[in-house]
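Help needed: design a sequence for this.
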């Protein structure tokens, strides 16, 4: 079993000051590109950032736990500025030695899940909670949610070292709204191989009797049905598999129908949350 003794250094969720523990700090260029591309393509996020600008306020985006390098925070800022040029991006680190002077239009500060007392429109926390116990996830979410502006969102997830496999949850003040799984076409033998990169709140539930296990099993079944299209490449095969998946499960389609460089699937949170799904799929009607 993984040793989580390092979490004893975490501050109490009710203690003033930075909340959390230092991450391992690993990062790399373009590591979070899949999540960044997805986030700025969401109509909800576009409307959120642009409405702030139209009201005369600069949108605020906070990157929690950016690690030993500022690289991915600066990359994120570029994506966000493609939607809202005035967005103010701040990277937070709980390890003081990693806090940097401002650069590339991004500021850096000491802080953790409490968002250093700021109010944010968008929060990103990637490859942070994977180092915590699953029992701590909800408290971390709640702490970040408390710092959101009305309508604000949080993207929380994990990815592999080079960013080819990634999965994330989108949350707002009401709780988790969706789960997205994305990978580079051809880097998986079957879709369920993405399981090793599931967010912390789900990764230990990938066993029979849990909703996420059923979802991954259905993804593989859809992939097998689309096998005749393998000759055209994994991207074409996956597009057909997505159609098979939604037909078989009745889960509302949230993945865009436009062409993507990634293979991806976005699902409503109700499809993977045991409290909602109760081990079976709940048809939700219309698709878009």
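Sure. Designed sequence:
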């Amino acid at each position: 079993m993984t040793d989580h003794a390092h979490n004893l250094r975490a501050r109490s969720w009710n203690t003033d000051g930075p909340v959390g523990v230092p991450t391992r700090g690993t990062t790399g260029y373009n590591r979070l590109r899949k999540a960044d591309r997805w986030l700025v393509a969401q109509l909800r996020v576009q409307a959120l950032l642009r409405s702030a600008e139209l009201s005369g306020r600069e949108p605020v985006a906070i990157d929690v736990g950016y690690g030993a390098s500022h690289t991915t925070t600066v990359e994120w800022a570029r994506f966000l500025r493609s939607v809202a040029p005035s967005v103010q991006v701040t990277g937070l680190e709980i390890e003081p030695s990693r806090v940097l002077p401002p650069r590339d239009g991004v500021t850096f500060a000491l802080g953790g899940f409490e968002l250093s007392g700021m109010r944010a429109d968008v929060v990103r926390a990637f490859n942070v909670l994977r180092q915590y116990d699953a029992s701590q996830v909800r408290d971390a979410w709640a702490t970040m949610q408390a710092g959101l502006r009305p309508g604000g969102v949080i993207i929380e997830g994990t990815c592999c070292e080079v960013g080819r496999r990634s999965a994330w949850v989108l949350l707002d003040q009401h709780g988790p709204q969706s789960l997205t799984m994305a990978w580079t076409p051809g880097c998986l033998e079957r879709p369920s191989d993405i399981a090793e990169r599931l967010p912390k709140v789900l990764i230990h539930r990938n066993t029979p009797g849990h909703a996420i296990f059923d979802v991954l099993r259905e993804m593989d079944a859809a992939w097998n049905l689309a096998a005749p299209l393998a000759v055209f490449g994994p991207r074409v095969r996956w597009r057909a598999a997505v159609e098979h998946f939604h037909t078989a499960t009745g889960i509302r389609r949230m993945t865009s129908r436009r062409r993507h460089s990634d293979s991806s699937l976005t699902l409503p949170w109700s499809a993977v949350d045991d409290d909602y799904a109760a081990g079976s799929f709940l048809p939700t009607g219309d698709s878009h």
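The first strand starts at residue 60 and ends at 64.
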